[in-house]
Amino acid sequence: MTGEYTVYGAAGSGSVPVEAALTLIGAAYSVVEAPTWEGDRERDKVAPVNPMRQLPALVTPDGETLTESAAILIWLAERYPEARLGPAAGDPMRGRFLRWMSFIPASIYSMYWARDVPARLAGDDAAAQAVLLERTAARISDCWAVMEGEIEPEGRFLLGDRVSVLDLYLAVVSRWRPLRPAFHRVAPRLGQVARRVDAMPELAGFWARRFPFEGDYRDETPVD
What we know:
Blueprint: E1 5-9, H1 16-25, E2 29-33, H2 40-46, E3 57-59, E4 65-67, H3 69-79, H4 94-109, H5 111-116, H6 119-122, H7 126-150, H8 165-173, H9 179-186, H10 188-198, H11 204-210
């Protein structure tokens, strides 16, 4: 497959692991910037490729549209096996890979649809919105703790000594609120993996452009 991919995304959003994967693959891509949490004007940019008006969406050079971050990441890992960004069918790590690639969006990422715009579920009641944010933050922490207890990193990364799209996914979603300090408290072993992804020299320029560690997102803990 030759040509350029088009990513519908936004800095700091769920498109970032997809963009990171494309960067490691070395595939050409452009981004249609659409921070959908800012309102209907931005969501309308995504509507032609995703009727849910959500990020990310990927348009391939052949014109096929893919949505859902986990599906896109798994597809990219399979489309570019030479990049070694995920275990192939039959690999002993395949089941673990698919389990956690599904767990992150189903149990954690899904919380952000409500958190980004609390009025979607809590209406205009400020107190109800505060409760929603508190309870979804607790749910996110609980889910990271479950993953921490169930997965034993097999090397420097979750599946071995090579980074996979699962590691990219973990590193990005763990940056979102309630932010990395809360994540590290409940998932210290996963946190070490995330920090190694943050520190990859191949992605240094990419992180600086698409999800810099500034302000609330700063994490200055040394990486082993």
